[in-house]
Amino acid sequence: SWPATWSPSQAAGYVLGSFLVVFTGFAIVLQVQAGEPPDTSGTVIDVFNAALLWMVAVLAVIMASARTHRRGAFLVWVAASAAAAGLAIDEVFEYHERTLQVVGEDDWSKVVMWMGAVAAVAVLWRLESLTRSIKAALVTGIVLQTAYLLSDLGDGDFFLLPIADSALRWIEEILEVLAMEAYLTAIVLIVVTVVVTPTAGAAPSSKRP
User: Fold this and answer.
1) Separation CA 9–CA 81 (nearest Å)
2) Terminal CA-to-CA distance of the chain, rounded, Å?
3) Residue 84 predicted with pLDDT over 70
4) What SS3 state is found at 205?
5) How far is 148 from 53, CA to CA, in rounded Å?
6) Alpha-carbon Rg of the chain, whole angstroms?
7) Three-state DSSP class for 160?
8) Is 94 exposed, middle or buried (0-12, 13-18, 19+ CB in 10 A)?
9) Which of 34, 37, 145, 146 is most buried as measured by Cβ atoms within 10 A of its Cβ?
10) b vs e for 156-181, b when ≥16 Cβ sit within 10 Å of the residue's Cβ?
């Protein structure tokens, strides 16, 4: 009977999925109760998104510790942890807004982040033995982040989407959270595959750094 019949990946998926549904619901409800526009600096939804990034940072550290026998993979996971931690800090304090003073538009920093996410997914695709579920989560993350970027660029800075400004702000923030949750899901499943069930893909490969 359940949960004994579940594989570690299935158990992680069910538990994490339930957690993220509640997590997202709380983020939206508390943001509404705060009475502030969701794109205001340091809002409730920013704090929740930062929490997701800190989770990714910690999981990346765990992956780095499991990849000490592969220098390239170890360094990639350390870099991923540092990047996620940096983004978590920026999510609350919004240092990227200072790019307005340099290039006149802070959306360029979000384009760079999107490119970084695509590059990171491509590296993971080559570096780790990914299951179908992990690949699906990563692709979902890229799709959601692309939608988030387009909704952000479509507020009139680059082009104008036929959506009310107040609704577009909510769409942007929710898509950002959902994209981060998809990436978190992928990292959790990678950790489960490598650390919890190491025989399912953790053995070092001579073809990988």
Assistant:
1) 22
2) 41
3) yes
4) coil
5) 16
6) 18
7) strand
8) middle
9) 145
10) eeeeeeeeeeeebbbbbbbbbbbbbb
